[in-house]
Design a protein that fits this description.
single chain, about 425 residues, mainly alpha, Growth Hormone, Chain: A, about 0% strand, globular
Length: about 425
């Protein structure tokens, strides 16, 4: 663990990363509404429209592990900067095509595929970069700042801004997205160079030749061997699956089962984001008083309670739609608080218990687990809802959170007492 010097170290570099995260989050939020609307302008075929999230999500499944290995090979600041520059160029090119009335659905899907690949690189490098910019004791606060700031720009400001600008002109949100990404690039240029981490377990002064496959396997072995990281990987899969089920049936549950209008449906997302901000604000004092692992357990419980409340909302039908929405809103806020608390704490624990030389690969695996679980669970949730209804399906999602909470609670004693193992350099050598 690094010790804190008397002065405030690396404060400006972290603020640069925070500014880049905020600007990138704004660009993501704008794209959340603008890109589907662009597709819808060109076709109303639901099969084609559905290809957009596939194009954005497929790179997570294909590139999550290789990008993690790359983050452990290169300067993570350069990797993040390059990925952000690529995303800026893609946004600018898409804007130009819209202005020229030359954007077709195939071109948009190709741009989305490239955007997804660049996003995988940036979201793998950024969390692995944070421990090099702040001291260990400041990691929880730093991760919380990144998560909260990104939540505000990507979930509260960006989507509404994107929809408003699109109503003015289709190119407007893309132009603002490009500008936001350019701001992120400018902020990242202020970061210091962060050399690729070295494998501290190696006893030889000569560099060890490794293959990409060997390095990926080394990260997988570490995750399987280190108790805390292993439990976090499993609980993340369970919680991400619950999120995927919710995403798969939420609109049907709110609009059809409850009978709310489109505006009320949109407000539930805002309530979720507000709950997440509240969870982030309460996390630091809670962690200081009770420790990280109890916060993880409580976060999983809150997620389950929130899903159960959303599932139970139609049961208040005799009291009217307002009562149903009130319960669904309370559930969304509770779910948001649990999600934020879990994400910040899990990222921090993973950073603190993973050797720097493996952090990129472990982060890549974690993002792969989270991103890969959501679409598969969404598909399963839709199939289950067609048979059992949305209420039962969301109750099952709440049960997944309960399983994660039990797992985290059972693993608490051993996980709290284990120190991170050093990477096995010989296993990746050719």
């Amino acid at each position: 663990m690094r010790t804190s010097p008397a002065t405030q170290p690396r404060l400006h570099p972290f603020r640069a990363l925070l500014a880049a995260s905020a600007a990138g989050g704004l660009a993501d939020g704008i794209a959340t509404t603008a890109l589907p609307l662009l597709v819808l302008q060109r076709t109303d075929d639901p099969r084609v429209v559905a290809l957009l999230p596939v194009a954005l999500g497929l790179p997570w499944l294909l590139l999550g592990l290789p990008m993690g290995a790359l983050a452990d090979r290169v300067d993570r600041r350069r990797m993040l900067l390059a990925a952000t520059a690529v995303r800026t160029a893609l946004a600018a090119a898409t804007t130009a095509l819209v202005v020229a009335d030359a954007l077709t659905v195939p071109l948009l899907l190709l741009a989305a595929l490239a955007e997804g690949a660049a996003t995988v690189a940036s979201r793998t490098a950024a969390p692995a970069l944070v421990p090099a910019l702040v001291d260990d004791d400041d990691l929880p606060r730093a991760n919380g700042a990144v998560q909260s700031t990104t939540l505000v720009t990507a979930s509260l400001i960006g989507p509404a801004l994107g929809g408003t600008l699109f109503a003015l002109a289709a190119s407007s949100p893309l132009a603002v997205q490009t500008a936001a990404m350019a701001v992120a690039v400018a902020a990242l240029l202020a970061l210091p160079r962060v050399p690729a981490p070295t494998n501290s377990s190696s006893t030889s002064s000569a560099p060890t030749r490794t293959t990409l496959r060997g390095e990926i396997l080394e990260g997988l072995r570490f995750t399987a061997r280190e108790p805390t990281v292993r439990v976090l990987a499993i609980s993340t899969a369970l919680l991400a699956a619950a999120t995927g089920v919710l995403q798969g049936v939420f609109v049907v549950h709110v609009v059809t089962t409850i009978g709310a209008d489109d505006a009320a449906y949109g407000w539930l997302f805002t309530i979720f984001a507000v709950g997440a901000l509240g969870g982030g604000a309460l996390l630091e004092p809670a962690r200081a008083r009770w420790g990280a692992w109890p916060c993880l357990v409580v976060a999983a419980v809150l997620g389950g309670l929130g899903l159960v409340a959303i599932a139970a909302a139609p049961g208040l039908d005799p009291f009217g739609t307002g009562a149903e929405l009130a319960l669904a809103g309370a559930g969304a806020a509770t779910l948001g608080a649990g999600s934020m608390a879990y994400n910040v704490t899990a990222v921090t624990e993973r950073q603190q218990r993973t050797p720097p030389a493996l952090l990129g690969r472990v982060t890549g695996l974690a993002t792969l687990i989270a991103a890969g679980s959501v679409p598969l669970a969404a598909l399963a949730g839709g199939l289950l809802a067609s048979v059992a209804g949305t209420t039962s399906t969301l109750a099952v999602a709440g049960g997944s959170c309960a399983v994660a909470a039990v797992l985290l609670r059972a693993a608490q004693p051993s996980a709290s007492g284990n120190r991170p193992a050093e990477p096995d350099s010989s296993s990746a050598a050719t």
